[in-house]
Predict the 3D structure of the following.
Amino acid sequence: MTASSINTADLYDERGDELSSLAVQFQSLGGQSHFSGPVRTIRCFEDNALVKTVLATPGNGSVLVVDGAGSLRTALMGDMIAASAVANGWAGVVINGAIRDRLAIAGLPLGVKALGSNPRKSAKEGTGAIDVPLEIDGVAIRPGAMIWCDPDGILVER
């Protein structure tokens, strides 16, 4: 079984207490339903400049986890940034917030989990932090930890 085809339910049955499960009901919005990799992180609020910058660097199969504080007021990623992630070898993106250009992103070979969508652009000031520990819904997400995502949900290495 390749990393991209691992089912989170089977993985949880195998590893249980070694993994945390995010209870937040993220939507699967990318062209890859199953994706996994080492975590990179960004904490930002309604400002996607850091998302654009990081996804323009070599991803080497990593998954970018963006904590946008659950805001659905602006999109933190659109089709151009998602296409950049594909071109740079990212496995996927998990956004605790919104995206835009859903149909275009659904056609890309990229795993994308987000809370929803909003056509409104975000700020571009670059506020936030890169590669910092995050906590989403009580689950600690640290840079370098493994993450697995599929239509059932998201598991993170403790």
